[in-house]
Amino acid sequence: MPIGAALGTVAVTGILVLRGPQAAMVLLSEGAFDFVAHWSLSAVPMFILMGSIAFHSGLTSTLFAAARVWLGFMPGGLAVATTCASAGFAAASGSSVAMAGAMSRLAVPEMLKAGYDKGLAPGVVAASGTLGALIPPSIPFILYGVFMEASVSKLLIAGIVPGLLTFLAYTALIVIRAKLNPALAPRTSERFTLRQKLATLVAAWPFPVIVLGVIGGLYSGMFTATEVGAFGACVTLLAALISGRFSGAMLSAALRETLLSTAAIFLIAIGAVLFSQFLTLTRIPLEIGRIIDMFAVNQLAFILLVSLFYLVLGMFLDPIGLMLVTLPLLGPAITALDVDVIWFGVLVVKFVEIGLLTPPIGLNLYVVAAALNGKVSFAEVTRGTAWFLAAEAVVMVIVIACPGLILLLPNIMQ
Question: Dihedral sign, CA of 95, 171, 185, 78?
C-alpha cells in the first residue's frame, strides 16, 4: 500500500478499536482537514510549482550548461559542474527526488560521453539530489516545522550552512578522486572563450534572481515561508516568459506534476497525522520517550541513538513518511533533554536524505537508474554513491559537533 494509506488505515482501525466508530470518523474528517488547512503548508505546492516550471521550461539545462563551461577544466569537471548545478537547482526546487530525476537526464549522458566511470556519473547525481532538501526552499523543513511547531523560516535558513558544507564535501571528494585516478573522470578537451562563458551566465540569469529572492526575502523578514514560495513561483514563471521558454504545454506539464506531487505528499502527511494521534491515545510516544531517557543520559547520547535509529530505518522507508512517523515518538525526549528544535530539524532532514542513498530502498538510486533507461544498472548507481556516503559522514560529524555553526544564520534573522 502507499505509505499514507497504510498509516491512515492503521490509525483509523486502532482508534475504532480503542474509542469506537464515532471517534474514528471525527479523526478521519476533522483531524485530516485541520492539518491540511494549516497555512504554512500552502508553501509546499508553491515550491513544487517553482521547481516544475524551472525543469519543464528548460531553465535547469541553462544552469548545467553554465556550470559545465566554467568548471569543466577541473579534475572531474563535469561531475563538479553537476554538483554545482544541483546546488543551484535546489534553490528552485525543494525536492530531492525531482532534482535527481532532472539532473540524471541532463548530466549523466554528458559524463558518460566524456568517458566518466559508470558508477561516478550517476552516483554524483543521486548524491547531489539530496541538496534539494537542505538549500531553501525545502519541503521536508516545512513539514518538520508544522509538525514540531517550529519557525519554518528559521528552519529554511538553517539549511543553508549544512547545504553548502555538503556541496563542498562532494566537490572535494570528486576532485581528490579524479586526481588520484584520472581514468574515473577524464578531463575534457573542450575550451571556451570568455565571450562564450559570459553568454552561458546571461542565459542562466533566472537562478541568481530566484536564489536572492527566496533566501534574501526569508532572511530579511520581507516574506514569510508561504509568501516566498508564491514569490519564487512567480519569478520562475516570469523568467520562463522573458526567456521565450513559456508555452501552454510547458505550463500544463508543470501544473500536472505539481498537483500529483502535492497530492502524494499530503496523503503521506495526513496518514502521519492520523497515526500520530492514534499513537498519542496509546501512550506509546511517552513510553518510548521514557526508554530513550533511560539510555540517553545526555544530549550527545540521545543524538547518537537517534542517528543510528534514522540510518537503519532510512534504508527501508520513504524519507517524508519516516520523518513524520518518527517525530511524534521522539518529541517527548527532545523536550525533556532541551534539544534545540531548529538544530534537531537539520539533523533529521540530513539523516532522512542520507536514507535516499542507502539500499535496499534508496529512492534516489532507483530514480536515477530509471531515468537512464538501462544505460546504467542499479548496482553501478549504488557503487558510485557509496563514496558520497563517506563525505556525508564528515558533514554529519561537523553538524553534530558544531550546533552553533548551524544556528548562526537563523539566530541573527530579523
Answer: positive
